[in-house]
Amino acid sequence: MPITVNGNEAELPHDPRVSLLDLLREDLHLFGAKKGCNQGACGACTVLVDGQRVLSCLTLAVQCEGRHVMTVEGLAGDNGLHPLQKAFIEHDGFQCGFCTPGQICSALGMAAEFDRGVPSVITEDFDDDGVALTPEEIRERMSGNLCRCGAHNGIVAAIAEVHAIQGDRTDSREAAA
Question: At the fourth CATH level, which superfamily is domain 3-74?
Answer without folding.
Answer: Beta-grasp domain (3.10.20.30)
